[in-house]
Amino acid sequence: KFESLGFTISSLKNRFSSKLGSKLVSFFLGFITIGIVPRALGVDQYGNLNFLLNFFNKTTKFLTFGTLSAHYTKLSAKQNEKKIIGFYSYYIILLIALVLMIIIGIKQFGFKSIIWPDQQMKFVYAAALFSILSLISNITRQTSDALGLTVKNEFIFIIQSFLGVAIMLTLYYFKILDLESYFIYNYFFFIFVIFGGFIVINKKKVFQ
């Protein structure tokens, strides 16, 4: 029992250390790029970005109905229950469909000028995709935590942080950082984190 308990404490320490290390790296690297995006985008584009992301982040958060924490709790208690991940995957697909229907409905029924005044539809869709990928990235991270794979998954986030700063500085230096390139930049790293997370999660043979 004591050996088992010692192993559990050691595992928790490793997970906590990796999570803390990842947060600290992101925090300090964030200081390097904190003023780059507003400066590169300008007041109007930066304001549009925050407006649209705020709308879709709140929308996706509402549509999850608090199920993300329930998914984490249930999976932590029953790590061998692959059906939990499968069920939640279908739920996220449904959520994506609902977001798409909301966008189409707002546009078709003429509410665009009220809800998204002076916004181009391509950026509306871009912001929706941003929020969805951000949600999926968060889900893969929490799923890794629930399966006890925090250390390996946080390493992916550390790599992403360093690469992100390098590419952001490059885009800014060559003056090619605008709203479109900013969305593409984030898509790349969301997909990087999600794909890496899938590989880590599959260590538990979840997708087999």
Structure characterization notes:
By secondary structure, the protein is mainly alpha-helical. The protein is 85% helix and 0% strand. It has helices at 2-33, 36-64, 67-77, 82-108, 112-115, 121-146, 150-173, 179-201. The two termini are 32 Å apart.
Using brief descriptors, characterize the structure shown.
mainly alpha, 208 residues, 0% strand, 85% helix, disordered N terminus, flat
Mean pLDDT, all residues: 87
The helix content, as a percent range, equals over 70%
Shape: flat
**Mind telling me the C-alpha Rg?**
19 Å
Low-confidence stretches: 1-7
Most strands sheet = none
* Structural classification: mainly alpha
Order of helices and strands: HHHHHHHH
Helices, by number, come to 8
According to DSSP, the number of beta strands is 0
What is the rounded distance between the termini?
A: 32 Å
Assess the beta-strand content as a share of residues: under 5%
